[in-house]
Write a structure and sequence with these properties.
two-stranded antiparallel sheet; TIM Barrel; about 45% helix; globular; alpha/beta; 12 helices
Length: about 280
Amino acid sequence: MHFADALTAATKKKSPLCVGLDPQLEKLPSELSRDPAGVLAFNKGIIDAVKEIAACVKPQLAYYELLGWEGMKVFWETCSYAQERGLIVIADGKRNDIGFTCEAYADAYLYEGSPVDALTVTAYLGSDGVVPFLSRCAKNDKGIFVLVKTSNKSSGELQDLPVGDEVVHEHLAQLVESWGAQYLGKETSLSCVGAVVGATYPEEMNYLRTLMPHIPFLIPGYGAQGGTAQDVKRGFIPGGGGAIVNASRSILYASNGADWKETAAKAAKTMAEEIATAIGS
């Protein structure tokens, strides 16, 4: 199924919640070992806790690379486990390059049958660093999310620089819309090309939605970074679709005691309810 169609179906069935799987050894529940085996057990526990609530999970590759080859094995096992339990898997690797190297990145994650459904990418090198990902998305029913306006405080140092009558992230948004317009779903008017737009910049998000009407938004910055449900509602299209909202720490580490799975599920449910209320208001 086309990525945007699958994403839309999942968010309607559950919620537009995306849980970031960012395992930090020192924050794992006390009952788990501080090693790759403990990380895998933690990830599986979180996945089981949120699988009926969240549409997606987003493992951040840095936390797995940090653990060496065993960590990368855990990454792929985590992706498979999540996908088997009905969750859409977004690998947060922010990949980008040109030529054969870019093709290698695309083939590494977006191959047919991969347990990764989508990958985050940067576009700093221009369309040369994006086209190989687009072809794999179209061929293998995968997706990408291009960084457009990120949630971090210093994002404006580059992303807000003026370019004529607009700023860099606005120009990039128009490029993303043009790339994505070639790959719309059959069941939706949304593309397999998405955009990362931070909840911490709600006014910018509001305008970016007008520039990218066919682009699914991946919205980080909710909760621990300060984004609210009223902020993220600006990223949704009429009818409440077109976006997923990520949270990591506020769900993963709601408790490190024996009740860590239950508290993660409760935190996810609360967030899903807050977003649903905001979208409906």
